[in-house]
Every structure is written in structure tokens, then in C-alpha cells.
Amino acid sequence: MSSSFGHIFRISTFGESHGGGIGVVIDGCPPRIPVTEEIIQHELDRRRPGQSEIVTPRKESDTASILSGVQDGLSLGTPIAILVRNEDQRPGSYDEMAVKYRPSHADYTYDAKYGIRALSGGGRASARETIGRVAAGAVARQIIAHLAPEIEILAWVKSIHDIDAHVDPDTVTLDQIESNIIRTGDPVAAEKMIERIKEIRSQGNSVGGVVECVIRGCPPGLGEPVFDKLEAELAKAMMSLPATKGFEIGSGFAGSRMTGSEHNDPYRMIDGRVRTTSNRSGGIQGGISNGENILFRVAFKPTATIMTPQETVTSSGENTELKGKGRHDACVLPRAVPMVDNMAALVLCDHLLRQKTKS
Amino acid sequence: MSSSFGHIFRISTFGESHGGGIGVVIDGCPPRIPVTEEIIQHELDRRRPGQSEIVTPRKESDTASILSGVQDGLSLGTPIAILVRNEDQRPGSYDEMAVKYRPSHADYTYDAKYGIRALSGGGRASARETIGRVAAGAVARQIIAHLAPEIEILAWVKSIHDIDAHVDPDTVTLDQIESNIIRTGDPVAAEKMIERIKEIRSQGNSVGGVVECVIRGCPPGLGEPVFDKLEAELAKAMMSLPATKGFEIGSGFAGSRMTGSEHNDPYRMIDGRVRTTSNRSGGIQGGISNGENILFRVAFKPTATIMTPQETVTSSGENTELKGKGRHDACVLPRAVPMVDNMAALVLCDHLLRQKTKS
Amino acid sequence: MSSSFGHIFRISTFGESHGGGIGVVIDGCPPRIPVTEEIIQHELDRRRPGQSEIVTPRKESDTASILSGVQDGLSLGTPIAILVRNEDQRPGSYDEMAVKYRPSHADYTYDAKYGIRALSGGGRASARETIGRVAAGAVARQIIAHLAPEIEILAWVKSIHDIDAHVDPDTVTLDQIESNIIRTGDPVAAEKMIERIKEIRSQGNSVGGVVECVIRGCPPGLGEPVFDKLEAELAKAMMSLPATKGFEIGSGFAGSRMTGSEHNDPYRMIDGRVRTTSNRSGGIQGGISNGENILFRVAFKPTATIMTPQETVTSSGENTELKGKGRHDACVLPRAVPMVDNMAALVLCDHLLRQKTKS
Amino acid sequence: MSSSFGHIFRISTFGESHGGGIGVVIDGCPPRIPVTEEIIQHELDRRRPGQSEIVTPRKESDTASILSGVQDGLSLGTPIAILVRNEDQRPGSYDEMAVKYRPSHADYTYDAKYGIRALSGGGRASARETIGRVAAGAVARQIIAHLAPEIEILAWVKSIHDIDAHVDPDTVTLDQIESNIIRTGDPVAAEKMIERIKEIRSQGNSVGGVVECVIRGCPPGLGEPVFDKLEAELAKAMMSLPATKGFEIGSGFAGSRMTGSEHNDPYRMIDGRVRTTSNRSGGIQGGISNGENILFRVAFKPTATIMTPQETVTSSGENTELKGKGRHDACVLPRAVPMVDNMAALVLCDHLLRQKTKS
């Protein structure tokens, strides 16, 4: 069950980076929701390799086909299976990696856990694994649009290396974010970030960064205390993505250095609604949405594959050196944005459906 | 199912801060594990009010009784129910709060979600809810001691307000942490933190801070990709605790500002084992433990209840003011330490048992 | 998780027949449902020992207390914990049974599974375990009354030994069933059954029988293919009750000897509704209710404890003899009726709530 | 989650009878288990149409392809996705059925539940849905062979219409069962059954029957009280199969007409093991296997599709008549045998893995 996520809207993903294909089975999609391959493809295209000059040049079209659960563009209420065939397999690139553990990859830990591992491409530890999540996220968005059309979920690159973007979570638009290949709402920072990635890549090195995500228009009342609090489910969703090292919501770690009088969000009646006049809570109080913008950040480490020699060991226990090969992202952030916003969509969709059982 | 946590070792908690009592039912404890009320009480005593001069003076003994699943000090393999009766009920303190939403508490969101809420003491949103988790953590520790006795789980206060403690995760001991009422491994910082809490409390204000936790001696191979990665489960566990705003593992948010060559952990054979010579991964790679120390941090916001007037609204939608009353922690950190280390024990125990199904 | 049942309305039971107590935690009860100790007690009283001259004379009042989740007679939406303290503990009666495995009891299998077992009273294998189920059933009934007040769930004794009752599932009433201590809708058969039980008991022997259950007024559309079909969930619910040996729905085993033209239920429009003019389907088609009466039967074996000497072995592996002692039901059927109808209520309630997530 | 089954070894099936394909994702298969397409195909071939003169002549090769989770014939410990493409699509045969509800099919109930349904071939209510179960059963058998090689799971046709087969569950072999197209261990009855099916089919009618299943060599200790008792899980597994109307274990319904002294199974030490000298318990006591043969029976109703005119209604609510068309089984029993034994394998495999977490 470790490859399943969600309670009512529950996805089960499968597939290695190399092999027959990658996909997802969605159980719990309500019936009569518009679902098409085009809708799914749109999200997958935001995630796929080769989409711009700063991401991996691997040529995978990542074409989704719907195997079940949909008829004439509408969901049947039965499981929706989506398959993306693998295409650009060059296992040759990975020969050396079959015997040498790549530093800060999962080669060693998969061997330690399973006593066997996919010998090429990282198996389930590859970022390619997220295809199933993103495809399911596209379906989740359709349900959200049906149940709570006022909800908007937007993510963007908040920082890359030491370059910070200045983005207003209350006003940034999807068009602004998608207008640059970094996927950030700050065009000036975007230019600097592109330059930095190119520079780092030319050195055979890599960089990390932070993705920020806002959920606007979320109705109050979503989230299921005490373990399935909305921020706890978002944290799990994000920390299950490859390469993530941290999650914070609202004031986050900075909030831990404040006093209560600085941190508390006063309530006021505004336009007949209970509102807070600040949002250090990040839109969630006691694990339940309060109707304000839900705002969180996710830290991504630098890509583990670098082109300079590194100390490592072989699977038979000898010290050695390894130099990265193959076509990798020097910075995963631009492609991490759709992973973050689609995982957020999965969480929101599930909680909208869970809330329906409260009355 | 939102009050259940874990897969094989699965706990279901219940209870409001006021009412008959608080407790937990543990399903999946292996048989023949030593479990006694004393063992459980030991952990509860680390969490309970009134334990020192810097925590809330509420007088609750938080006495645990085992209702089922244990015979002559050994688990039967059947559900273990543990009950802590509520004692020090002064609902009078909360009268005003029944109509006025306390800022940055969960009063409003519970009303928005359920259309009803426990009118005194915060209900399930009270930190008192964590009793069930800590009691279950005591049992989880017994199973860990049986299955992997080399595992040590230690948490401590890393910072309070702007005061940072300097603690070496590789060497700090439980005795050092428990030797001061802050629960930190740095006696100098402890003194400053105590002074700061007293000062802040005298102003009717509150402060937040950060808890750090290390898991030493964890065998390689724990964690269940792709959604139940070890860090994802730890993140959910921690972010489901009251007042948490952030989680980071290993290099965390700082790691997002590094390059790959700075961040990657080289492998070396040391004493016949695969080891890393640095630990920016925080002991987990690809969602699976690698045998190094698992190290993470959890941010806690300042306690929401403060003794100065704040703007708020009533449940009937009128603007008003509220001033905190009652006996509250001005800083939750000392009592948060056992919440963090026991939640970590729940996650570890569950994953040790899950790993047994892999062979 | 093996002591939990249900998906949205999820119960977790605990407790041995001897020990601190027996109970249940209910997670997923919608808020603002009327729940009181009286409502729960009413169902428990139908199940408890000593209620009539033909059941075990053990004196247990089985008094329920609600520990959490309810305020002023209304559910809060948080977990409802219900506890029944054990009272009439005479472990002395069981001394011999501690070393000798009682034939057709679970003493041996618990030892085989867990390597330890509750040394008195059968532990979780005692029919006393069903207290938690029945208490939760009382709450489930309240939710059903709120969501689908037209639903009636009635069970009755269909046969005891070779005596069959003639009961019309379409018209039988709760009053008719509860008007005799057998709990059947056929007063003539009831008299014969009472005589048979007394006769069998006087011989130190025991008898089995069949309980039949009808769910009237069930809306079409409940049940979740393909694994959580309504009959599959009912079957699991019933076969998890102690002493059950069989489950059949509608035509049941007799239906397997029919042809399609004899078995199929024709559809007709009646009063503007789609109806079937026969009901060999038992109210469920393809795992989903069709609006007709759901009708099923559950076979119970004769009580295992008998007062005549039987061959058995000791826990240390020696052949021996054992003669039952203690105060046991010679026939479990009258007390099985509320177990069956309340388990049916648990299933129905869960599926009513699951159906709410389909739109 | 309604299309998922199992706890540790968990399968999620998908696919309509017509559409892209049918399949299953298996989560929780231990690593390094031999799994090949040939092994899966072998079980699918026992289930597929067109395999003999007495089953539906539909021409579907039901060819399985493994999409993930297997490398060089060994499981990786990651999800195993198996896909069977649909081939023989003749939606034309079903035109009339799109508007007229087929009696005792699930057309009406799917419409009632989902407000939409697969307009051809019965969608998920088709017996074709069981492909995913059988494919997963083939994998489950491999795990069982690895963990408990002494276990044998055999099912056979016990009766068709009023013809009973005489089969000794203790000695019957797979070869005997597979030596006739009925799949029964009684060659004389097999001939009669074949004649009966042909006769019934020539009348445009159909017949039901009973499948019996034995699990030999099961170690004591499997089954998880109180809700996941072994017989409860078997009952759910079987009652989730299409067309099933009843389940009984050991003495079954007949046991309800016995006395305790007749029904109890005496224990004796035999060859140093605790054994029972009779087996009315059917190999399970208190929900846990006792080491004796597990023996159960499953009732199947006659196939709903018959070639004679029947009264029914249209989806727009008008009375009408319908006469079956297409190529259907006049008796599902021969193909039900691999459904039953493979579902039993799924349950056993899951419980073998669950038992590993008890120590």
C-alpha cells in the first residue's frame, strides 16, 4: 500500500523509469466528471523532459493513454487507469551505476531494503515516478473544478541557489508563472535563475531551490484532525516527492522565532465573513482550512547526479570513484512546480470528498 | 480514520481535553512484548502539565490505566487500550471563549467544519490530545527495543525564540537532555531559555521554538517508497502535532541553497559497512534509511493563548476583543520534546514491522 | 488494523472477556447526530447475559459509558469512545481450561498464532468481544435514521436445531421479534425452540441455528464494486462474528440448483419506480442495492462449551479429557440476533456515507 | 479503495469488459520472488473464454503483459502492474441492452449508483473483471510457494444444477480436476454435468452450481481476529466474485442443525502435533487456522443472460421485453473454479505476510 495515496480519492502508482511504462490507477473518482487524455496530457507536458533549454534533454513524449474508467469523456465512477509508455531507454548510460552506488541517490538504500534493485535509471527512485502523480493530479483538478470552482492552486519557484524570487501569492497568475521557463512569478529573478542554472550546468554541477504554493479560494472546513490535518497531509505529499528536504506552512520556521502577540492572526468580520487580518497561520488552524490562502514552501536539494568525480563504493563493498553520465537536470525546480501543485490538488480533492461525509 | 495513524502498528486516539478521558487503542502490537502501566506513565510524565516552573501549572496527574491487551506484563497481540481520566476540569475559565473565537486557535475552524465544537478547553485541538500518542509511543519503544535494540530516539529543544542551543546529535544523551527543565543538551542555552520564558510569560506573551530529533542506530532499509517514504511519514507525524509550522530533514531548507558537489554525501567503506562521510541526507536516501543518523527539526509557533487583548469575532459574527485566561504554557517546547520523540517512535516501530513483510 | 471495521464510519474494538473492560472507538461519525448512553444501552441490553431463562445466567450489567466525542447528547464529529467495564469475573471457573484446550474453541489457535493467550474466559475469542460492535451499531442506527429514515433493519431466529420458524420478511415487526425470548417472528416455533434449548441444556449439550436478517427501505445504489460489494461486506461482517459457519443472500445455496429462467428477477415499473417482481437477488445486484428488501441468513454452530467429557490435549502436548464448567449459553441464537442486526447497521451506515462521495 | 483488496499484499484492479484493457496493480509483493508472464498466463488460461465446448465461445486470448515491478524474472519489491488488452469487442451485440435493463444483471444498479454506466458489456460487472484477480492470484501463489511450500490450494465443481460430484478434499489432485472440462474431481459426475450444460444451453437457459475449495498444508496461526478472521476474509473474497450467493465453511449451514457433542472436533496428539480427529470446524477456529484442511463452498447462481424473452424495463422507465443475445456461458462454474482458488490464494498470501509481523 506504500504506492497508494489518498483516502476517498485514492491513487496507486506503478512503474520504473525503464521498463514497460509508468502509470496510475485512480479509485474513487466520482462519476460524470469530464476526463480526457488531453486534460491529462496538459499537466504531463508541464512535467516532461526536454520542454526547455534548462531541463534534461531526454526525449520522452510522455503520452498518456486512458485504459479504463472513462466513456465519451466522462468518468464512470470506476477505476481510471492511465498508462505512459517508456520510450527513450538508454540503459547503456547506466552501466557503471549498476555496480557503483551513486552518491545521494537511492541505489544503496534500495539494495539494503529489497536485496535487489532496478539496474538502470533509478527505478522507482527516479523523478520519472512522478508521472503517475501528475496524471492523477489532472483528474483531481477536474473534480475540484466541479465541487469547488473557486479554488485555485498555483505553485512557482521561490528560490534557486541563493537567488530569491519576489512573488505575491495573493495576485500571481498561472500565465505569469508559465511565461518563463523557470516557472516563477518574478521575471527579473527568472532571468538570473536561468543564467545560474546554465553556469552551474557548465561546471557539471547542480543546484537546489524552493517551490512555493498557494491554494486560493479554499472553503473553510477542510482537513481531518488529528492525524490527517490538512498541513500534515500536504507535508506528507510534498516530502514524498523526490529530492525534498523540508516543508513549512505560513510563518514556518521563521514563526518559531516570534512571540504570540506578533504571530497570532486577529479575526475580523469582512464582507460578512470571518476573516483574519494577517495570515501567519498559512490558511490552516488546528489542521482545518480557515478560508484564507493556504501558503506553503517545499525545499528541494540539488540534483544528486553531477558530472564531477565523487567518492563512492561498489555494491560488493569496495571504495571507488564515480563520475555522472547521462542527460540530467542540473536543477529540478522548473519541473518540480507541476509536481508540487498537482500533489496539492490530490490532497485538496481527497479532503473535499472527505468533507462530504460530515453531513 | 482521521484519528488513526500507522499501518501495521496502528493507533486510534480519542478524547477531548474536557470530558470522560483521553486515550488510545493500539492495534498490531506483536505478542509477548513487555508492557506495563509504569512504562507508559514514564513517558506521560515527561509530557504532563505542572512538571516544572516554566510549564502550565494545571494539576493533572495524567495517570494511565491499561484496559486490555496485556496480561502479567506482556502484550497478548490483541488491541491495547489505554485510558487517562480527565481530572482538573475548570470549564468556567473558558466561558468567554465559548462565544469568542480565540485568535490562532481552532475554535473557528472546528465550527466551520463540524457545525459544533467542544465548548470548553479546545476539544481535540488541545495539546492534551497528544496523551494518546505519547502513551502509544511508550509501547512502540518497547517493540523497537525488542526488534532493534541498537536504536536510540532522542529529541531536544534546538531553539526558543532567538536563543539557539548547541547540541551534538551524535553524542547527546537522554540524561543530558532531561537534566534541565527546557529539555535541551546545552546547559548554557537552557539557562537563557528559562529566563526568556519567564520574561515573556510575565508580559502575558508567549514564544515558539524548534525541536530537533535524532534516530541513532537505525538499520538501513526502513521506509516505503513512494508515498510512505520514511521522511514523508515523519513529516506527517510531526505536522499533525499541535502548533507545528515546519519540518526539515538533514540539510533541510539550507540544503536548497547548496550545489550538488557541496551537498552530496560520499560513500566509503568503514568497518566493513557502507557509510557516508557526511550526512546532509539526514540518514534517509530515496525515502529509505541508509544507516546513518536520521536527523530532523520541527518548528513550533508561539502558544496562541496570550494574556493581552486581541481583536477577534464572536461565533455569531460580531467584532470584539478577547484576553486570554486560564493556565497555559507560555512556551510549549519543553513539553513538545516527548511529543516529537514519541511520534518518531511510532513511525519507526511501524516501519520496522513493515520491513518484516519484505522477506 | 484487524480489530477495525468500516471505511468512513470506522470502528476499532478492544477488550478481553476478563480484564479492565470492553469497548469501541468510533471514528467518522458525522457531527450533530443524537447519541446518548441510553441509546447505546438499549442495544447492549438485547445482547447481555442473564436477560432470560434460556441464556447464560452470568450477571453482567454491561453498562456503557461514553468517554468522548459527545456533548449534550450530540456527536461532535470526533472519535466516540465507549467503555463497558467487566464485572462478573470468576477466573477460577477457567483454571482447568488454562492447560487444556477446549475443543472447537480458539484456545489452541490463539496459542499457535500469538504464543500467548488470555488465560481466562477466552479473551478476544469470547462472544463478549461483540459488545463493542453492538455499541457501535447503536450509533450507526442513529446515523441511518438521520440519513435514510425509511431504512429498517430486522433480524430474527430462523431456525434452532431442526426447528424452523416461519417468518415473513416483508411484514415482520421488531415488536413481534422481541415479544419472545428466542427473538423470532413465529410464536409457535418460539415455544418449541424454548423447550428444545431447555432439553438440550439439561443434557449438558448445546445447539446451533440460523439467523435471518432483512433490510427494508434501502435506497438503490449502495455497495462499492468490485471488492466492497454490499453482499461481500455483509458476508465479512457476519463471518467475523463468533460461531458463524455460513452466509447466504437471496436465493443462496438453493439458488445454485435453479436455472436462469427460474432465478432471474423480472423488472417492472411499479408506482413509478423500477421494481423486481421476485427477489431471488436478495435486494442486491452486481454488489449494489436495487431498492428491494435485502435478505440474508447466517448459520451459527452449536456452542462449543458442553458439560460432557470430551477428548482433548494439554498445551504441553498430552492427550487428556475435559468437561465444560461455568455458565454458558446452551444456544447462542437469541443473543446472536442483535449481533447480526447491529453488524448489518454498521455496514449500511458505512455505505450510506461512502455513497455521499459519489456526487 | 473499493477496487483494492488485501492489507500487506494489496491488489488494485481496473478495467471494463470493453475498453483499453483490464488489469491489476499489486503492491506489497516481497522482492526476489520469481514472477513471469508465463506464470500469470497459466492461471489466466484456466479462466479465459473459448477454452472448451461448454464455455462462451468468445475469442479473447487474454494475454498478460507485465508493465513494472519485475526484472529478469524476479520481483523488485515495487508495484507489479499487469495489463490484458481487450480484443474481441463487438459492442453491437449489446445495443438493445443499452436501453433495456437485463434482468438480474447490474445494469439498473450501476445507473442507480453512478448515474452513468458502461454502455456495452456490463463494464465492471462483467465476469471479465476477474482477470485482474486471477493474474494477481498467480503472483500470490508464487509467494506462498516461497513462504509455505507445503500449502496446496485446490478448487473444483461440487455441483451443477442438481448433479453433485463426489470428491475427497483430502486426496483430490489438480490433475484430476483439470482432466475434465467441468473441473471436478469426479469423472462420472463430470460427464453428467457436461450433458446437462449442453441440454440447458440448447434451451437458451442457464444453470448455477457450487464450487468447493480446500487449502491443504496451511500452518496453524493464520487469520487476524476479530474482523479479519480467516473465514471472514475468505467470505468477503468469494462474495465479491460475480454471481455468488452463498459461502459456508466446514460444517456450514448443516452444522447449524447439529448439537455441540456432534459438532465439536476432539483434539488428539498425532505425530507430535495437535490435530483434530474430525474437521467440522473446516480448519479454522476463532478465525485462526488450526493446521487442518481449510474447506469451504461457494454458491453461484445461474448465469443471468438467457436466450428466452423476459420482462424488464427501459432506462427511461417503460415496461418492455428483452431476449439475451451474444456469446455467454450457460454455466459459469468451470471458469469460476480458477476465480475461487486464486481469490483464496490472495487471502492466504496476505495472511502469511501479516503473520510475519507478529514476532
Give a description of the structure.
The structure is a homotetramer of 359-residue chains. Chain A has 359 residues and is of the alpha+beta class. Chain A has a single domain, classed as 4-Layer Sandwich (Chorismate synthase, AroC fold). The first copy, chain A, is built from ten helices and 18 strands. In chain A, helix 7 runs antiparallel to helix 10. The radius of gyration of chain A is 21 Å and the shape is globular. The first copy, chain A, starts with a strand and ends with a helix. The model of chain A has no long low-confidence stretch (mean pLDDT 95). At the B-C interface, strand 2, strand 3 and strand 7 of B face strand 2, strand 3, strand 6 and strand 7 of C. Strand 11 (244-249) of chain A pairs antiparallel with strand 11 of chain B.
Name the shape of chain A in a single word: globular
- Main sheet summary of chain A: 5 strands, antiparallel
**What is the count of helical runs of chain A?**
10
Percentage of residues in strands of chain A: 15-25%
Please tell me how large the radius of gyration of chain A is: 21 Å
Oligomer kind: homotetramer
Under CATH, the homologous superfamily of chain A reads Chorismate synthase AroC
Assign a percent range to the helix content of chain A.
Answer: 25-40%
* Weakly predicted, low-confidence segments of chain A: none
Fold-level CATH name of chain A: Chorismate synthase, AroC fold
Largest interface: A-B, 114 and 114 residues
> Into how many domains do the coordinates of chain A divide?
1
**CATH-scheme architecture of chain A:** 4-Layer Sandwich
Lateral strand order in the biggest sheet of chain A: 1-2-3-7-4
Structural class of chain A: alpha+beta
